[in-house]
Structures are given as C-alpha cells and as structure tokens.
C-alpha cells in the first residue's frame, strides 16, 4: 500500500487484482466522490493485523465525548488515525482520532475513539469505511454509541436511548454508504434492514440497566441521522417527532447500514446530551457542541459500564457456543 494522501483520500493500491476488480476500481475512481475499493480496505486491515496480535470479535465506536468507553480495554495497542495509511482523520472536538486494540471482558475488541461525519466533508462510504476494516479483521459485533438530541418528551439530558431502529433520512435524499458498485465480498446489492438492531442484545441491555439500577433513565427508541453540522430548526424537530423519531444525531445510521450489509450483529445506543426545542420560546438552551461534549464526559462512566456489561454477556454466550 502506498502512503497517505492529504485528508485521508485513497491511493490506488498495488495492482494484484483480477480483471473484474480492475473494472470495479475504474468505476470507483470515476465516481465524483471516490470511495474505497475492497483492496484498499483490505490493505488497511492487513496493515493493522501486522501490527497487533489482537483478532477482534467486537468493534466499538465511541460517540462525541464518549472516548473513555475505551478506557477499560486492557493489553492495548493504539494507532492514531493519521498514522494509518489511507485512513481519514477526525476533525471534531470530542473525537480523539485513535484506534485501540485489546481485551474487554476477555473479548478481543477494537475501538474507535472518534468517528467520521458527513459534515466533515467525507462521503458516507468513507465515514463508514472503518466498519469494513473491522469486518476484514474478523469483527462480528458492532457496538456503536453517539450523542443525540432528545425528541421524545420522556427523555431527559443524560438518559440513554438504546437504538431499536433508525430512519435513514439521508437515504431518503438518495445518499447511502452503499452507493456505487456493490462488492459481493462485503454483502448483497440490496440488503434488508428489518432487523438492523439485534433484539437479543437490546433485551440484554435492558436487563443490565436493571441490574445497574438505571432502568428509569434507559429508553428504547428510534434514531435519525441528519447531515449537520447545524442543529435543527423547531419546524424540523416537530416534523421528525411526527415521523416517530425519538433522538436525532449526525452519525451511526450509515455505520449500521454498512455493518448489516456485511452481516455484523449490531447494538447501539444514544446518550441524550440535549433536548430538542419544539417551541420557539422553549426554556431549553440552544443546542451547542460544548454542552454535548460536556454531558458526554459526565455520563461516560455509566455508558461505559452498560457497554461492558453487554459485552460480558456476549463473551459468556460465545463461551457456551
Ligand atoms: O459522533 P456523534 O454522533 O456522537 O456526535 C454528535 C453529532 C455531532 O458530531 C456532534 C454534535 O454536537 O455530536
Ligand atoms: N442533529 C443533532 N445532533 C446532535 N448531537 C447531539 N445533539 C444533537 C442534536 O440536537 N441534533
């Protein structure tokens, strides 16, 4: 693999592929927004596998202010995104920009401390490309978290919403991480999304929340991702609420679509960092990123504990299989 270009853009990997790969590659690079071909992603996975003995089964993505979810990982190796060839870089405050390998509850894991967002200028396929790196490294479970604005009137700042489903608003506008030629080595052209979020892991999370005594602040709901970076108008939030959205953010949906496309089991939750103002004279403060990161930091211990307990259950279940 050749070295990194500015802004994480893709270099063409050494040509070891067959004719149909080359045809695909030509289409990829002819696209207005170039994305990553299979070999480019494989090269990133190989680069990491040559440098860590960990063969992760679980991939974790830490949301805004939630970097310390990865702090409990033991026997770690970490890689700054800027040192991974052809990897994008994190540009958002509250996203460290580091990939960590190690063990959580005896499970081999890899964790992203920082993700990529559409508003940073990355196409959706690039935002979710690390999920495919995870897949090629052996990851079977994607555990994603995010910071989100609460729309369900029952939600309070600091609550957790386990994602039951999502509404892919960006997909309604014709924007998908799976746009462009489909590579069947990752998954089918038309993947279903009926059971995007694993029902068993959702029930495990509720059970864990009960054991932790936090059930009253843990909900289950529907998330949507908008492009950002601006927060929503009152009219937009009212519309989202009518559509059945419980929490709104700027990430995760494209990661989940990419993960389900390649048949990963998905568990995700949102930390409610602010309440969406549904009236112009609302007493709620206007949304701002400082508050989002601050609430993330103040709740990261609870979020981390919930995540660890769900992973512990997965570890137990893997042992008995
Ligand atoms: O990466 P996540 O989805 O946790 O971050 C949310 C969405 C924006 O990046 C940011 C807005 O404050 O928080
Ligand atoms: N779109 C959006 N993203 C968020 N991330 C954290 N809070 C919010 C919010 O209110 N809206």
Describe the protein in words.
- By secondary structure, the chain is of the alpha/beta class.
- The chain is built from nine helices and nine strands.
- Strands 5-8-7-6-9 form a five-stranded mixed beta barrel.
- It has one domain: Rossmann fold (3-Layer(aba) Sandwich).
- Helices cover 33% and strands 21% of the residues.
- Guanine binds next to strand 5, strand 8 and strand 9.
Highlighted features:
9 helices; Nucleoside_phosphorylase_sf; transferase; 321 residues; Nucleoside_phosphorylase_d; binds ligand LQZ7MJT6; 5-stranded mixed barrel; EC 2.4.2.1; Rossmann fold; alpha/beta; binds guanine; globular; disordered N terminus; Purine nucleoside phosphorylase
What is the structure about, briefly put?
The protein is α/β, with parallel strands linked by helices and 321 residues long. The chain has a single domain, classed as Nucleoside phosphorylase domain (Rossmann fold). The protein contains 9 helices and 9 strands.
